[in-house]
Design a protein that fits this description.
Oligomer: single chain
Distance between the termini: 32 Å
Radius of gyration: 13 Å
Order of helices and strands: HHH
Number of helices: 3
Strand content: under 5%
Length: about 80
């Protein structure tokens, strides 16, 4: 079974829509991976776990609103 942080966007979106995983579960998996690797790769300038988890919980409490519903994203400069 693929780790949640390794799902493609379409796989994660479909699993959220199907109710197989929650937005919070996906976000926690991604945050865990960031914590595990960022000391070596220094890819993140800002990570706000509290805010991200709050947003994920809000999305879990609402109806799925499209294929990107609940997918965590990051931006690279």
């Amino acid at each position: 079974m693929t780790a949640l942080n390794e799902l493609t966007a379409s796989e994660a979106g479909q699993r959220i829509a199907d109710g197989d995983i929650s937005c919070e579960e996906l976000v926690r998996a991604c945050l865990d991976r960031i914590e595990e690797r960022d000391a070596d790769v220094a890819a993140w300038v800002v990570v706000d776990p509290e805010h991200v988890l709050e947003q994920a919980r809000m999305l879990d409490a609402s109806s799925v609103s499209g294929p990107m519903h609940g997918l965590p994203i990051g931006f690279k400069d």
